[in-house]
Description:
Layout (H helix, E strand, L loop, with lengths): L1 E6 L9 H11 L2 E6 L19 H14 L5 E9 L5 H8 L6 E5 L14 H15 L7 E2 L5 H4 L19 H14 L2 E4 L17 H9 L4 E3 L13 H6 L3 H10 L1
Parallel strand pairs: 1-2, 2-3, 3-4, 4-5, 5-6, 6-7
The structure holds zinc ion (ZN) (2 copies).
Amino acid sequence: xxxxxxxxxxxxxxxxxxxxxxxxxxxxxxxxxxxxxxxxxxxxxxxxxxxxxxxxxxxxxxxxxxxxxxxxxxxxxxxxxxxxxxxxxxxxxxxxxxxxxxxxxxxxxxxxxxxxxxxxxxxxxxxxxxxxxxxxxxxxxxxxxxxxxxxxxxxxxxxxxxxxxxxxxxxxxxxxxxxxxxxxxxxxxxxxxxxxxxxxxxxxxxxxxxxxxxxxxxxxxxxxxxxxxxxxxxxxxxxxxxxxxxxxxxxxxxxxxx
Length: 258
Ligand SMILES: [Zn+2]
Ligand SMILES: [Zn+2]
């Protein structure tokens, strides 16, 4: 069964969009749709974030949609958790509000980015991966979202004016290996995420990039798929292309059978 386990209908701001997401999932033969709006975070008021104090209401709205689409699409309640050790208390507050089927670990280092500070691509990548490595040492999560999404920031120099010293995954191989060991120990899934790739339909921009997919496989990591849809058209993005791919396809087939 096809499943999309990373979607942002922005449920607290646009309550009816979840129904459009479910209808789109049905069109694409996606049997299970997990809603994963962002946790409340004191330093961010992004539209896809649940406002502070409203996580219980968010869960109630997802479960209402679950009942409305019973027998059509299996709607599940998840959450995207922005990990940083300074915000562990805010993660615990969000998780205390109820049950979540899927808890995504995200290292959104751009939230902590200071444009006045001299920083290079490799420093930024290192900060993001160190932070993610700390996340995989906790027991908050069921999956790691967009492993190498910091690559996206390198394409936005006007917003993130960093010194372009290059990025190569092999420079961080030890850190990736530590992340995968932690994930294997805790049974965390690794997400295949086309959010950066879908605009250009370029599989080379998918997270994780191919060599990291192979490295994760060598640790016996299991995968999941999440479109990271921020609009109805992005539900199930690139799923057909990924399923047909010789590297991503077998990883997704195992997930679709589980
Ligand atoms: Zn994210
Ligand atoms: Zn997301």
